[in-house]
Design goal:
Helix content is about 10%, strand content about 35%. The protein has one domain. It is globular, with a radius of gyration of 15 Å. By secondary structure, it is mainly beta. The model has no long low-confidence stretch (mean pLDDT about 85).
Length: about 100
């Protein structure tokens, strides 16, 4: 059963993730040479599970953003939703970026 009223969606997937005590689940862009057209790049969406040190523990690739979002929300929406743009004071938000 879903705990979060809000989920990760098209507008916030690049700045949001799910978090439990020791792990984070998020989507990222993954690019690699196209397997049959080497002059092109294949872009996929990676559903990634990482520990608090940022070490990747698992990644599943999707060609479609909707499928990746659906899987992310189905698996992890009972974890705490962290929206970095809204989390400016706890060290996990956008204000912790070296660009600021």
């Amino acid at each position: 059963m879903s705990k979060n009223a809000e989920k990760i969606h098209h507008s916030n997937w690049m700045t949001s993730y799910y978090k439990n005590q020791n792990l984070k689940a998020f989507l990222s862009l993954v690019a690699e040479p196209h397997p049959t057209e080497p002059e092109n790049v294949l872009t996929q969406f990676g559903l990634t599970l990482a520990n608090t040190d940022g070490e990747e523990l698992f990644q599943e690739l999707f060609l479609d953003l909707d499928a990746a979002l659906s899987e992310l929300n189905d698996r992890y929406d009972d974890w705490k939703l962290v929206e970095m743009a809204k989390t400016l004071s706890d060290g996990d938000g956008c204000s912790s970026c070296a660009a600021h």
